[in-house]
C-alpha cells in the first residue's frame, strides 16, 4: 500500500486553512497543521474534520507551534516530513497591522523566512524535496499602478501587513532562484465565505444582517465605504493553492475573479436579500478607517486560467447571498430559499455580541 502524501499547513485554524484541509483530506493526503496555544479553543473551523489521533482512521494531526518560533518550526518539519508546505499563517487584518506593526511583520515576513530556511536546511540534510506555497495578497499592489493587476504589476504596499507580504513574496522567489526550491507565490485577491473572520468587512456585514433580522442588533458601524475589491469564494481559492504545487515548475500566480465591487454594492445585495435598506442601519465610525487605504483592486487571473486550468465558480451575488444564508441559518432563521446552509464556523456567533 502506498503512503499518503503528507502536507503541513500553517494557519490551519483560519478560513483558508480549514478549506484547504478539507480539500487535501478529500484528495487522500495526511494533513498536519500548526496551531497556537490559546487559553480558549481556537479550532472551531476544523473541529468537524478532526478525529482522535489514536484512531487508526485519523489523517489530520495538529502540532503546537508559532511562526515567531523558528526552533519549533524546525522540529515539526523533522517530525512530520511533509512533501508540501502551505504557509497560510498570518496576522491577516490590515487595519490591526497599523496597531501592531512589529508583531505583524514578525509573523508574516520573518515567519515566511523562518519556514523557508527550515526547509532549505532540511532538504540539504535529507535530500527530500519539499514544495512550498506562500500566501501572498493583492494588498501588495496597494496604490493603483495598473488595472487590472497581474503578476507583472509593480507592488506599492500601503500597510505594515502588505509590506511584510511583499518581503515574504520576494524571499520566496529568492529561495527558488538561489537554492532551486519548489516555492510558489499565490497573489490572492480577497476571498470570503461563511468561515471568514467576523471582523473583515464582508462577514461583518452578513453577520449583522442576520442579527438585525433576529432582532439582536440595531446598527452596523463601518469605516470607508468607497474602496473597491475583487471578492471571490474561499473554497475556490484553496484549489488554486493546491494546483500551484502540482505543476512541473514553480511559479507565481494571481488568483482573482476579474470583477470589482464597491462595499456599497455588497451592502445593497446583503440587506436587499432580506428586504432591508442598508442606509437605515449602517453608521460611520472613524476608528475603522486606515491611515492609508487601498482604493481599487481588480485582478487578472488569465495566467492561472491558462496554466493551472483554474477559474472561479461563484459569482459576486451568489457569494453575498450564500454568506447571508449561512449567517441566518446559524441563528436558526430559515433563508428565503428555504435551504438552511450547513457550514460550521458559527459557534462564536452567539458568544460574541459585538464584534469590531
Ligand atoms: P485568517 O486570519 O482566517 O487565518 C490566519 C491563520 O493564521 C489562523 O489559523 C491563525 O491562528 C494563524 N496565525 C496567526 N498568527 C500566527 C502565528 N504567529 N503563528 C502561527 N499561526 C498564526 O486568514 P485567512 O485564512 O483568510 O488567510 C490565509 C492566508 O492568506 C493569510 O496569510 C492571509 O494573510 C492570506 N491572504 C488572505 C486573503 C483573504 O482574502 N482571505 C487574500 C490574500 C492573502 P489562530 O486561529 O490561532 O488565530
Ligand atoms: P482587506 O479586507 O483590508 O481588503 O484585507 P477588509 O474586509 O478588512 O477590508 C476591506 C475594505 O473594507 C473597508 N471597511 C472596513 N473593513 C473592516 N475590516 N471593517 C470595517 O468596519 C470596515 N469598513 C470599511 C476597509 O477600509 C477596506 O477598504 C483582506 C484580508 O483578508 C487580508 O489578509 C488579505 O490579504 C486581503 O483581504 C486581500
Descriptive account of the structure:
The longest helix is centred in the N-terminal third of the chain and has 26 residues, at 101-126. The chain is globular and about 65 Å long. The protein has 356 residues and is α/β, with parallel strands linked by helices. The protein has helices at 15-26, 70-80, 94-99, 101-126, 160-179, 201-213, 234-244, 263-273, 302-308, 316-330, 347-351; strands spanning 6-10, 30-35, 60-64, 84-87, 131-137, 183-188, 191-192, 220-222, 228-229, 232-233, 252-255, 261-262, 282-284. Mean pLDDT is 94; it is low at 344-356. The strands form four sheets. It has a seven-stranded parallel beta sheet with strand order 3-2-1-4-5-6-11, with helices on both faces. The chain has a two-stranded parallel sheet with strand order 7-10. A two-stranded parallel ribbon has the order 8-13. It has eleven helices and 13 strands. It binds NADPH dihydro-nicotinamide-adenine-dinucleotide phosphate (NDP) and guanosine-5'-diphosphate-rhamnose. It is an enzyme of class 4 (lyase). This is GDP-mannose 4,6-dehydratase. GO terms for molecular function: GDP-mannose 4,6-dehydratase activity; NADP+ binding. It holds the Pfam family GDP_Man_Dehyd. Its cofactor is NADP(+).
